[in-house]
Structure of Iron only nitrogenase protein AnfO (AnfO_nitrog):
Amino acid sequence: MVREIAVFVGDNGSTAALAEPGRVIVYQRQQGKWKPVREILFSLECSLGMPEVRRQLAAMLEALGNCRVFVARTVSGLLYKELEQAGFSIWEFAGRPSSFLEYILVQEEFTVRQPATLQTVIPASMETEPGCYQVSLKEIQQSGSGLTSKQVLQPLLNGNFYCVEVVCSHIPPWLEAECACGRFDCKVERLAEGIKLIIKKQICG
């Protein structure tokens, strides 16, 4: 069960890009409410080279203890790789923690509850160019594997991407809701064989 979520925030209390100065606040859900339990100042000195960046990251990860869910406005490159290799579930959100902590908790616990046999048969998406992916939900539905659209798409949408193209017979309601609330930009194209969704991350001002 997810007990803690670490969020990287700037001076305004909203999420910041991990390459910016800020602090990591670890939130814990207590009696139905999210409360900050630890705070770690964090400012990468990229000018000092990769060894120093890795040292700073290692110190931050050690301070996080058993927490393995990390949220920032953007995480990319070496920073994403280091978090991924340390076993973190990485999320990108713009805004204040109160607007997304409960959502992340629900999604993380949903993933944990899925049988391992289902997790292993999720088909790989096709990377057409760096950061751009294609996946067909129609083929998955016709295969009778028992997979859901969430199991297929969430690993992509929670990761580091620029564009995901999805061919499907209808738009999954959960995905439609996420686009409506502004987490993604979503363009719909009608095809002879169904629908193509072009999903991109919201550009944060």
